[in-house]
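Researcher: Quick one. two chains, 337 residues in total.
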Amino acid sequence: MTQEISSPENIDDRLRQGQITETVITARRANDPQKILDLIPYSSFIGAQAKVESEGVLYWLERRASNIGNPTLPAIHGGVIGGFLELSAAIEVLYVLDVSVIPKVVDFSLDYLRPGRYKTIYANCTVLRQGKKLVNVSATAWQDDPAMPIATARCHFLLP
Amino acid sequence: MEFNLKMAMFKPALKFAMERAGHGAALGFKLTRVGQGQAEMTFPYKEEVIGNPLTGVVHGGVIVSLLDTCCGCAAITVLDRRAITPTMDLRLDYMHPAEPKKPIFVSAKVYRNTANVIFCRGSAWQNDEDNPIAHCVATFMKVDAEGMRFSDILRRRVNRLFGAISKPSKEVLEEPK
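Model:
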């Protein structure tokens, strides 16, 4: 291990991890989870955004042609909904818990309840359990009415 | 013989739907093989969808999209009547992280086809098919497509359009309350 740390790539990695940690801490202080989202290229690819609301962090995904799965309906791709919920759950872990390393997903389970229409999707997440090694997060996505979710997901993350 | 002909006509349509439109096109999915109850796809590495800026590994969401699409393709091939197959649920287990800058291969297979539900299994791998990066099981509902004819879609769109036009006037009426 000590040999690895002295190699140039690892020093570079540690520096960049330091930047991530710094961004996460600044985001928590500024109440701005969007700063953490901006670290992850996938979030801008699908167009995910986040802000702090009274009952927690609200994540949303504005409609975008590249997120369509079924062009005849048109409906949002099921994989985008899944990816968005997985991303939201990971941001929730970074923002709410005292974790500053991007957590590893172990498993992800998604139930589709209604079709995702071609309009904004909202989501919120709840950390159900935090252990020493595992975190269980549940995420729910809706469009018009929070009481009419389009999908719910459950996600396990492994902490370093 | 009839099955081959059906699949031969089916593949270009499915390929078009998966590769040329929407999210599949944005990610650059390639449908490499379709058969009765099975499908295979490839995803070339893309920097835009990195999930961990430290390692350059693609985000899990891409693997969700890939497996959902691939299982969906496999599910469509076993239909014996006009129907659509929305996903009911999808469960993914990540075995180990993907390696950056390498394509991801996925394959999906239908392992049970009942009157109303189609059960699929899929896996995603990079170097070795026997050492996958993720496994998934997905279930699909069979919904009869009688209401999915082109004329019905058109009628619903027209209704929605009129609904959208008449909506603002309703709100104006309700505002004084």
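Residues 1-6 of chain A have pLDDT under 50 and may be disordered.
Researcher: Thanks, that's what I needed.
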